[in-house]
Amino acid sequence: MTPDARQGLLETIDAEIRGCTGCRLHETRTLAVPGEGSAETEVVFVGEGPGFNEDRQGRPFVGAAGTFLTELLGTVGWSRSDVFITNVVKCRPPGNRDPEPDEIAACAPHLRRQLSAIDPALVVTLGRHSLGAFLPGTRIGQVHGTARPAATDLLPPESTVFAMYHPAAALHQGALRRTLLDDMTAVPIALQGARERRAAAAPRGAAAAMTAGAPDPVAVATVTPGPAPLSETVPGADPESATDQLTLFA
Ligand code: SF4
User: Fold this and answer.
1) pTM of the model
2) Which atom of ligand 1 is closest in space to residue 29's alpha carbon?
3) Could you read off the pLDDT of 76-95 as tens digits, one per residue?
4) Which residue minimizes the CA distance to atom 3 of ligand 1?
5) Contacts of 212 (CB under 8 A, 6+ apart)
6) In 30-186, which residue ranges form alpha helices assigned H by DSSP?
7) What pLDDT shows up at residue 172?
8) Higher pLDDT, 228 or 52
9) Beta strands in the chain, from DSSP E residues, in sequence order
10) I need a surface site. Which of 12, 31, 136, 185 has the fewest CB within 10 A?
11) Whose CA is nearest to atom 2 of ligand 1?
12) Residue 212 has pLDDT above 70, yes or no
């Protein structure tokens, strides 16, 4: 797909989301929040759902948690425009309650189409609802800071998922700020591993073409050379943290 075609497809999906009435959340939203960022990126960050500010502005992660997400990206030399940022539900649940399973299911086709258009090597989940959509049956306190093969129909199996706490976790529990910063340092490493997994899964000719001609929208200068462990546990991990029970919105 050409960059123009990819951008056009994302804009079509955006328009469909902004007019969507696929679940009850459309009744209470101000604006739907499709997501934003680079259509050509290799990395998509997926949060849980829009919060108050996002609902008003129609943009993801624009509140305090968004400020911290921007800071996290900056620690590895990335900006918001280097990646794509979205949520598992595109409309704010009233009062920032948990999205219901039927709401997540109703919104999944939008996310699936966005991911199909972008075709990222790596999805970074932010928070337990996003984690549940990509790695069902896992607990964020046990898997944050690690990368695993995708285990969902939202992504092809050669894609990789990296789990993180939601940035808002640091606003509720100060100690998790250090955890999020530590986990973020492993994301470029996970990207390197994700690239290698995809290259290994591609037909030989396609892999060669990828290596020779693929754009590199996310700077690799910060990527630690060498194969990325797919289940590396980052120092400082807090496997029993109760934060996986928090409901966290941008
Ligand atoms: Fe449609 Fe998703 Fe919004 Fe529900 S949350 S109305 S499925 S865009």
Assistant:
1) 0.84
2) 3
3) 999 999 999 999 999 999 99
4) 91
5) none
6) 52-57, 64-75, 101-118, 128-134, 140-143, 169-172, 175-185
7) 86
8) 52
9) 36-37, 43-47, 84-87, 122-126, 147-149, 160-164
10) 136
11) 107
12) no
